[in-house]
Amino acid sequence: MKKMKTPACYPILFVLLFGFLYSGDLLSSDKIDIVVLISADAEWKPVHEHFARFKPGSTPFGEIFSSEIQADDLRKSVVYFHGGWGKINAAASTQYAIDRWHPILLINCGTCGGFEGSIRINDVLLVRKTVVYDIVEQMGDPEAALTYYATTMDLAWLTKPYPTPVVESILVSADRDIRVDDIPELKKKFGAIAADWESGAIAYTARQNQTPCLILRAVSDIVGVRGGEAYGDPKLFEKRTAPIMKNFLDILPAWIKAAEKLFGPGTRPSRQAPFIFQPGP
């Protein structure tokens, strides 16, 4: 019998087809090991480009891609989820991800604005605590309102030394860019060195669901007495955000390996969520 020669392109086509089919299978699963939540559009763009050869899934908030990450002997299913910017999208998409995929670990990677003189461009914050600072309470105790939504991150499951350089810090959040006049008070009152829009809502929602959460935010721009260097210049923000997000994709396996303690037998969370979204198809 004549032996047929296999065209050189077949193995590549098989890998691409298998990856496409497997990705779809993961997206339909209701149990994913890790959800990586990405907020801003500029932060999601490099992730979308990274997975461009695969067809994304959809949610009420944004696109999703799925894959597996191999970190030494640890192999875990991952969904990358564009949750949207601002506290409303951040809280809602976090709850959606928890209800739909029941992850063992929720990771938020993104950017933040740094306070001049306190931190440098591209420094990565490992967030230890979040505070939502734009709450204005005039009927009761304003400090009690701030405390209610503040979240101290339980990171006891992370193995030290950490796999990549980080600055362990509080991160303050508000539905607005950093105002120069606010910086002295944010430093004095909270010990803050940077701020963003979403981390406070993500951390709070994860805590309410008893879902371990890791927040890594890199400084994309600095705000100081002369204002914000990216204010009025969104192209600068996008230019700096692209390599930041590509770096997060590169170092993610190492951080997942550092979270290995979470993935032992019987570690999948079992909880009753405070409110339930009905996941789409």
Structure description:
- With 281 residues, the chain is an alpha/beta fold.
- It has one domain: Rossmann fold (3-Layer(aba) Sandwich).
- 34% of the residues lie in helices and 25% in strands.
- It has seven helices and eleven strands.
- The chain has helices at 10-27, 41-50, 86-101, 142-149, 183-190, 199-208, 234-258, and strands at 34-38, 57-58, 63-71, 74-82, 105-115, 124-132, 151-152, 167-173, 194-196, 213-224, 227-228.
- It has a five-stranded mixed barrel with strand order 5-9-8-6-10, surrounded by five helices.
- Helix 2 packs across helix 7 (234-258) and helix 3 (86-101) runs parallel beside helix 6 (199-208).
- The N and C termini lie far apart (48 Å).
- 41% of the residues are buried.
Overview features:
disordered C terminus, 25% strand, Rossmann fold, disordered N terminus, alpha/beta, 281 residues, globular
